[in-house]
Design goal:
With 420 residues, the chain is an alpha+beta fold. It has 2 domains: 17-173 and 227-316, BirA Bifunctional Protein, domain 2; 329-419, Anticodon-binding domain (Rossmann fold). The chain has 16 helices and 16 strands. It has helices at 18-33, 48-56, 60-63, 84-93, 139-155, 174-186, 192-200, 202-205, 211-216, 229-244, 289-292, 307-316, 336-351, 365-375, 385-389, 411-419; strands at 38-39, 45-47, 68-70, 76-79, 104-113, 125-134, 161-167, 250-251, 263-271, 279-285, 300-306, 329-333, 356-358, 379-383, 392-397, 403-407. The strands form 3 sheets. Strands 1-5-6-11-10-9-7-8 form an 8-stranded mixed β-sheet, with helices on both faces. The longest helix is centred in the middle third of the chain and has 17 residues, at 139-155. It is elongated. Bound molecules: histidyl-adenosine monophosphate.
Length: 420
């Protein structure tokens, strides 16, 4: 072991488990790529104000969990705690919204950082795959995103997840509700921290998981009863489109989410096998975010799915992903001359697209065959001086144990044929 360890709240992805993470990212991205979303990548850090304005000064993410720092040049930056504000910033900066083809549909995959209290499923460095559809107000877009996330989870084989759905209203109806809720909450017996929250962000109090708080919330005014006609009609259409697509959801009037930019549709994917960190993904509409960060009005919607928690969900359901073998052929040279010849053949095979590995450091036959076994290769390619003198290499089927000579000159084609 070295003197150093991965920092608290982080962990390393190491083979063979790391392949699962790649496969999960792929599985989440596939339906997006298939639905008109283009790949976007933004920096790992941004101007800190992008998040304080966008995600919201009163949120835990900004007030407690951000890795903010000042550069030597005096610029205030923060490691990105989430992707939406950055993606919208990048789209505005590149004027994507002016190209006359709205919505701009983008997907991304990367690392995010939150200084949270670490526990299973909650890390300080975690990974998300996300999607944002920028610049259009259309319930079909909200539905599309939820359907695509559902499709991604189902392709992975997950079934024990639920979709929670709510509408947070818009700038017309939410302030009226906020006032009503605040009035109700001010009459409750709450600790000082929560009383402060009532003043800054009363909707977040609905999200409080503690029984003492939840008990008092019975009878709290519900946003549903305050939604304006436009929001109601919008929400109803999202629900109908989901139902028509065969995607089941649960209405959850208390779902408010931990980021301030949401308007109208909000949703969360929760997995029942994960304990307290059960949200595997979440998202919603953020019609006002562009203006909050200095852009034009661009109604938008998106989600991000947590890769770490999705892997935990697979484990909870006992799902083993079928991962493609990383190595098809493993070459075992016996002797110096064979080493040179087989290394050349390995290079040719790799150039021909065959996943091939080689026994290095002059290992003997026994040790080299052990490595071949561990690599999961379908074939071992063995050659010694006598084989070379006859112009052949031995191709050993690692499943049946059968071995047969193949002419060195035709080896690449012969191996490709057998693997096909
Ligand atoms: P979020 O709900 O904060 O939303 O994060 C999305 C997902 O990221 C969560 O459901 C969870 O799976 C994962 N996640 C968040 N924090 C952690 C953590 N500390 N450790 C492990 N996993 C974590 C957003 O980030 C929004 N940007 C989603 C969005 C996109 N809304 C609109 N567009």
């Amino acid at each position: 072991m070295s003197t150093f360890q991965a920092p608290k709240g982080t962990y390393d992805l190491i083979p063979p488990e790391s392949a699962k993470y790649l496969a999960v990212r792929e599985a989440i991205a596939a339906p997006l790529k298939n639905s008109g979303y283009g790949y976007i990548e933004t920096p790992g850090f941004e101007n800190v104000e992008l998040f304080s304005r966008g995600v919201g000064e009163s949120t835990d993410i900004v007030s407690k969990e951000m890795y903010a720092f000042e550069t030597k040049g005096g610029t205030k930056l923060a490691l990105r705690p989430e992707g939406t504000a950055s993606v919208l910033r990048a789209a505005l900066q590149a004027n994507l919204h002016k190209l006359g083809n709205l919505p701009v549909k983008l997907w991304y995959s990367g690392s995010y950082y939150r200084y949270e209290r670490p526990q299973k499923g909650r890390y300080r460095h975690f990974s998300q795959v996300g999607a944002e559809a920028i610049g259009a107000e259309d319930p079909a877009l909200d539905a599309e995103l939820i359907i695509l996330a559902d499709q991604a989870y189902r392709t992975l084989g997950l079934s024990q997840f639920r979709i929670l759905l709510n509408s947070l209203g818009d700038k017309e109806c939410r302030p009226v509700y906020r006032d009503a809720l605040q009035g109700f909450l001010r009459g409750l017996e709450l600790d000082e921290d929560t009383r402060r929250r009532v003043e800054i962000n009363p909707l977040r109090v609905l999200d409080d998981k503690r029984a003492v708080v939840q008990k008092q919330l019975v009878g709290a005014p519900l946003l549903r009863d305050y939604l304006c006609d436009a929001c109601k009609a919008y929400h109803e259409e999202v629900r109908e489109l989901l139902t028509a697509a065969g995607v089941a959801y649960q209405d959850d009037e208390k779902l408010v989410r931990g980021l301030d930019y949401y308007t109208r549709t909000t949703f969360e994917f929760v997995h029942d096998g994960l304990g307290s960190q059960s949200a595997v993904g979440g998202g919603g509409r953020y019609d006002g975010l562009s203006e909050m960060i200095g852009g034009p009005a661009l109604p938008s919607v998106g989600w991000a799915l947590g890769v770490d928690r999705t892997v935990l969900a697979l484990e909870a359901e006992g799902i083993e992903l079928e991962l493609p073998a990383t190595t098809s052929v493993f070459a075992v040279p016996l002797g110096e001359e064979a080493r040179r010849v087989l290394f050349g053949l390995v290079t040719e095979l790799r150039r021909a697209g065959v996943a091939t590995d080689f026994s290095y450091a002059g290992k003997g036959l026994k040790g080299a065959m052990k490595s071949a076994n561990r690599s999961g290769a379908r074939y071992a390619l063995v050659a010694g001086e006598r084989d070379l003198a006859e112009g052949v290499v031995q191709l050993k089927d690692m499943q049946s144990g059968e071995q047969s000579p193949v002419a060195l000159a035709d080896a690449v084609d012969a191996i490709r044929e057998r693997l096909a």
